[in-house]
Structures
1.
Amino acid sequence: MTVEKPVAITKEHIDAWKQKYKDVFKLTAADEKVGYCRKPTRDEVSYAMTQIAGDPLAYHETLLKSTWLGGDEEILNDKSYLYGLGAQLDKLLEAKKVEVEKL
């Protein structure tokens, strides 16, 4: 059995991701495992939202898997990381503040 060592993410990786995706996020767990995600597309968010009714955690899992760029794969595969990321993943969805005024 072979165990693959995770690829070390370099500044060059991050710079290339930023050039391609613009917004790149670093996920750092308490045990110092690190992963990287990009901002999800509208279609990815829409699909993830369809998962909420059947399994609320599936929303976050779908977002994480669809935007994953690299890092320690244990963050993707061990659900305890997903539980810890929960609300933090909403930071991937930058929302602009909009005011509504009745005329």
Note: Helices lie at 11-21, 42-50, 56-67, 74-77, 79-85.
2.
Amino acid sequence: MRRVLDWLAATARAEVSLQDADGTLVAGSGLTLDATLVADLCSGRIASAAWEGEGRHLRLVRIAHPTRTCVLAVSREAPYDRHTSDVVTHSAQVIELLLTAHETTEAGHRLQRATSDLRLAILQLLMVEDTVAARRVAAGLWPGLLDADTACVYVVECEPGRRELLLEECLDTTREDALVVRCPAVDGHLIVVSPREAISDALRVLVGRHADTFLGGSVRQSLARTATAYAQAVSALAVARFRADKTAVYAERTHPERLMDPAALRVWSARVLRPLDALAHHTRAELLATTRLGLEFTAVNTAKILGVSRNTVRARMERVETMLGVDFDDVTARAVVHLALHTQINLQDARTGIAADGHTPGLAHLLAGPALGAWARELLGRLDLDSRNVRRTVRTWIAAGGNAERAAQSLGVHAQTVREHVRSAEPVLERQLLAAGTDLYEVALAHLAVGDLERPRLSGE
């Protein structure tokens, strides 16, 4: 628009102004125009006007537009000849086309932003287990996308500056077979949710075409477990960065809860979470979903994923802490609540507090199983081969709430030494420890199972 007006000004040897009905300057120079004349033009009473006086010759042309009418004003010292008049008329036509094109482009951008916001809203509903609402929202634009009971979650990682390009490619690749969302927490991540098996191969091909781009995928989960699947995809992404094909799927390994008596674990979990049962259903679901994510990620990232403030995340988790009688600064307490939460979502058919044999098991009973004990001893025993006594450092660090400075004071070493020991334990244990989440909680449960750490106290125990 500015270039057209500049060209018109140079060709007609004039001052050129484009204003809307309110007198707001759209482009060009700020000519002073008669308000009544401008109003007549904008209302459609006249299409153009000419005025001469004070050594100036002024032409006004109405620019019709669907959303707003503008007035093109051209003021010059010399009288208008036929050629100059035609230049003004044709320029007005070009400006009208440019305004329409600009409005169409803006409408397209607004539609893209609205669609992007809608995709994010669907993901956030899935993250808090509101699958019914997620399906309703998705049905309008992507019919059938979430009709399946299960889906896989993928995370594509690239340079933040290239994410928009990759997003467009990803949308073209997956078409309407996947929910593709800009990750609200990490600038270089795209989150893809799809029930279709073929999406995995399509994403692998996509990642293979781009350097420094990686793909992590979850195992198939129910839609209600989208948050769990997302955590799995992020975990797999850490592995993908070291693989030649730059892709990885979350590896199912032996998890401690699978080594516990399932009936006893179900009963124990229901009893631990029972204080939350008195809440309204939607409030309970909101608190549980926030706490599950809050135990996996930082409060800031959890807030971004859920679309709420970090203060809201902290307030919800503090409420859960109070109701369950735990302290989330204690890693073992976080691990135990994490165990109960994931048992609850895996075994949603149980709300009874008495086992079939009438026994009400406690955490000590669950941790005393021979299978769990053997697993814990094997896992932690891997650290015994390190002559630096890394196992003691990891145990002390967990007992200190994952705080390197406090652990260092207890051990009489430097905090950096503690961090180096913990970091060196990660490949040995095949688990991420410094990033709080499922891996850390499994190691904490292993310490509880062998008696190396004191069991946390819960009000439901």
Note: Residues 82-127 form the longest helix (46 residues).
3.
Amino acid sequence: MPYFNFDLVIGAEFKNQGGMFLENTENAIDKADSLASELRIVRPELCSTGCAVRVTDGDRHELYRTPVEPIGRG
């Protein structure tokens, strides 16, 4: 099983949110979307600041990025 890392992206800064072994990239994307949804609730100050959650593989190559604030809100 591949290992995926999750980061909170604030500007040019990447804050590690941990990692986990998951079956595939699709599951990692689902986890990133879930983390972004949770952050909207517990850290509403991150909305409208351009923050995002990104997924990287074991070699730190970015695979996916999702905004904390959903596109189309406003």
Note: Residues 12 and 30 are 23 Å apart (CA to CA).
